[in-house]
Write a structure and sequence with these properties.
Blueprint (H helix, E strand, L loop, with lengths): L4 E5 L3 E5 L22 E8 L10 E3 L2 E5 L4 E6 L5 E6 L9 E2 L3 E5 L4 E6 L2 E7 L9 E3 L2 E5 L5 E5 L5 E5 L6 E3 L5 E4 L2 E6 L2 E5 L6 E6 L15 E8 L2 E6 L3 E6 L4 E7 L7 E2 L3 E5 L5 E5 L5 E5 L11 E2 L3 E5 L4 E6 L5 E6 L5 E8 L2 E6 L3 E7 L1
Antiparallel strand pairs: 1-2, 1-16, 3-35, 4-5, 5-6, 6-7, 8-9, 9-10, 10-11, 12-13, 13-14, 14-15, 17-18, 18-19, 19-20, 21-22, 22-23, 23-24, 25-26, 26-27, 27-28, 29-30, 30-31, 31-32, 33-34, 34-35
């Protein structure tokens, strides 16, 4: 089982999806020959240690903040890969890192929230809910989303709790990173299949929009939690609901623009023109961002355990389980470029930092490429 999906019940955890039947997982599609149509050169390479969880680095300005499963937390200069500072949580981590450029926060497997400033540990706080989503640091606050969908806010300077929001939920929740993001003066939170807008000062609910309608004969089949990170373009936020749908929400008006029933577990990528994502078999689709109409689909990378998607001007970028980074044409999904990393799976979602694309691998490799 190459991609491990787990759902947590109130009393126990069960395997939800990603397990193959008696025949085993389908063989990954063979890579096809192509004629490069996009130049890309490696800029720099670094390491963060082994990554046993999904990690998308926190980028603020030219500072890239990362965390490894063994507890390493470090900041790199995004343009050069130069290390700015390095610290240790002193324990293995359960979730990635959130940072506003000044403060950086992580969550340990011992269920402690730790916050650093410039590599110095400021405080630690015991949490009462398991966490697998990277904290969000904004406005001198640290926001934490639990697997039970509770949301907590802490003062970034001293760690005291400011508020806690607990919503009623289904008995099963997804043990995968959820949606936790800023939007103007609102905190966006995934609450099951709903995208919720929360007052970041008071912790009160402002609005919520359903991206999917859970279906199925049992609780596992009805799982439709929003998978993070969400993709934002202006006022529009697009996200995948686990194995259920892809949809876009106008977060300013709190309205659903469109949603399409489609399976899949990896985050989508989007900009003002298109939304991109791979389904459960890694069939890639491009949707019109305004209408949700399918622009094209591609079967070239079936069963290659694709990462989340990153939309660029000319290409959409995916990583796969063998460490390849695929640059596909936005127009038709044809391969424009393919780059190798260290042979281990690309984790999280590729990230754009200026004119560079940052990719992380299971072995902890941090790779920066510059597409021309």
């Amino acid at each position: 089982m190459s991609r491990r999906l787990i759902v947590a019940a109130l009393a126990a955890a069960v395997l939800a999806a990603g397990c193959a039947s008696s025949g085993g997982r389908p063989k990954p599609a063979a890579l096809q020959d192509f004629q490069p149509q996009l130049a890309a050169q490696p800029l720099w390479r670094s390491s963060v240690g082994t990554l046993n969880f999904s990690l998308t680095p926190a980028l603020r300005g030219n500072t890239l903040v990362l965390a490894g499963s063994d507890g390493a937390v470090l900041a790199l200069e995004a343009g050069s890969g130069r290390e700015l500072w390095r610290a240790s949580a002193g324990a293995p981590l359960a979730a990635g890192v959130g940072s506003d450029g000044r403060f950086a926060s992580v969550v340990s497997r011992d269920n402690e929230l730790l916050t650093f400033e410039g590599g110095k540990l400021l405080w630690r706080q015991r949490l009462n809910s398991r966490v697998v989503t990277a904290p969000l640091v904004a406005g001198e606050r640290v926001f934490v989303l639990g697997v039970d969908r509770s949301v907590q806010a802490f003062d970034a300077i001293d760690g005291h709790q400011l508020w806690r929001l607990q919503r009623p939920g289904e008995p099963l929740t997804l043990l995968e990173p959820g949606v936790l993001a800023p939007f103007k003066d609102t905190l966006l939170v995934g609450q099951g299949p709903r995208l919720a807008g929360v007052d970041p000062l008071q912790g009160s609910l402002r609005w919520e929009v359903a991206v999917a309608l859970p279906r199925g004969s049992n609780e596992v089949e009805r799982l439709a939690d929003l998978v993070g990170p969400a993709a934002r373009s202006g006022d529009v936020v697009c996200a995948r609901a686990f194995q259920s749908a892809v949809g876009c929400v106008d977060a300013q008006r709190a309205t659903l623009l469109w949603a399409k029933n489609v399976g899949g577990i990896a985050p989508v990528g989007a900009d003002a023109r298109q939304v991109f994502g791979a389904d459960a078999s890694d069939r890639i689709s491009a949707w019109n961002a305004a209408s949700g109409e399918v622009a094209w689909t591609s079967d070239k990378l079936l069963n290659r355990d694709l990462s989340g998607a990153l939309a660029l001007e000319r290409a959409v970028v995916f990583g796969d389980a063998q460490g390849y980074v695929h640059f596909l044409s936005r127009d038709n999904g044809q391969t424009l470029q393919r780059l190798a990393t260290d042979g281990s799976a690309v984790v999280g979602t590729p990230l754009r930092a200026g004119d560079a694309v940052i990719v992380l691998t299971r072995k902890g490799g941090v790779f920066a490429f510059r597409p021309e």
